Amino acid sequence: MKKDFMWITGIEDTFVSKTDRVSKRPLDEYELTQHYSHWKDDLKIIRDTGFKYVRYGIPWYTINPEKGKYDFDWTDRVFDFMKRIGLIPIVDFIHYGTPEWMDNGFINSNFPEHMAEYELKVMDRYRGFLQLYTPMNEPFITQEFCGRLSLWPPYLSGDDGFVKLLISTAKGIVETVKAIKRELPEAFALHVEASGIFFSEDPVFDKKVREMNDLRYVTYDLIQGLVDDRHSLTDYLFQKGFTSKDQDWFESESIEIDGFGVNYYPQLSVYKVSRNGSSIKLESYYGGTEYLKELILAYASRYSGPVFLTETSINGDPAHQIRWWKESTNLFKELTAGGVNLRGYTWFPAMDLINWDYRYGTGRVEEYLEPMGFIQLSMNSGREMVRRTGDLAEIISRDIATLSL
To answer: Is the peptide bond before 154 cis (omega within 30 degrees of 0)?
Structure first.
């Protein structure tokens, strides 16, 4: 991959399609934002705003509806159009959901093999066009929502559930990257994690805060074979179901990482830890560029290899969004001038998204709109999601054309 700085955007592509006693409503962001109907318009706006690269998700549950069966009608049309208009996709293969035929989803005994087969099948079909891919978006969120918090299938809970999801998803990433690297050695895997910072003013929480921060790195550490007996989380992992056999497997099967993706939202990525009676209380804390800088430098120091900001934006009115764009891109100018190996900046999402609470709610879809994109969505009287752009898109377009990083 060329070392030119990459201006990237992406379309929110959460696909938790399974309906059950917990939720009667599927969460398919493409369906809810009507991207399936307006995909050409959305991609044209992205191109016209000045972006060359787009993080773009594939709905695994629709293109692989049965075990061993694939339907590429959707991806054929989309990738052909991207090629014609000059967009380069960074394929986002798994954005939280699995196909419904896969019993128990992420903890299916053959999940790593299913994941590797699916991703290699897609990369091979579009050989020569697809060069950039993310094996699994934000594995920590999958481990947390599916394993610890019992919010998404397969609804495990607690630390034991978290570690089960960690082992399975990390093995899936390893098997997938190795399979693609064997067949397509030039493909570039941009790994993406939900970065976060926890802090406390109460020293009694020092150990807990260190553990919470280290858990955000554990997937990256594990797939690189870095979880040895000296690792800060080794005792925690072994207490919660990780075994010597698992440790040996990850050390012997370790992979190198092409690119490290940091996801950071100033309203969502920093938490203050305090007391709530006898339990722990987490409070969202506006992090701003101070904590974004801390995270980027932490990744650059902890790992070798280039760092990308793979998601950032802010929820609010256009003036608020413009301010964050300016602050965060100014930080990038400072960091790159200082020699930090930063290779890409991603405003994510390109267009407004639907809050995940929709899956558990009963209101109309427009009640869950989150104003985070430079493409603003609104529902008209005919139940069509209308797209429009404004000052934020104009400023992004101008800056992409003139900023030198």
So the answer is: yes
Residue with tokens 């075990």: 67
Residues in CB range of 78: below 8 A, 6 or more apart: 39, 43, 56
Where does residue 378 fall: left (phi above 0), alpha (psi -120 to 50 degrees), or beta otherwise?
Answer: beta
User: Which amino acid, residue 217?
Assistant: Y
DSSP state of 147: I
174 contacts 251 by C-beta, under 8 angstroms: no
How many Å separate Cα 264 from the centre of its chain? 10
**Band of the pLDDT at 3, cuts 50, 70, 90?**
low
Q: Are 129 and 91 in contact (CB under 8 A)?
A: no
Structural domains of the chain, ranges and CATH numbers in brackets = 6-402 (3.20.20.80)
Q: What is the band of 2 on the pLDDT scale with cuts at 50, 70, 90?
A: very low
Residue 121: the pLDDT is 98
pTM, rounded to two decimals: 0.96
Who contacts 249 (Cβ-Cβ below 8 Å, separation ≥6)? 171
C-alpha 178/C-alpha 176 separation (Å) is 5
- Taking CA atoms, 187 is separated from 67, 76, 103, 181, 290, in Å, by 25, 19, 30, 7, 33
Strand, coil or helix: 190: strand
Place of tokens 């690297």: 181
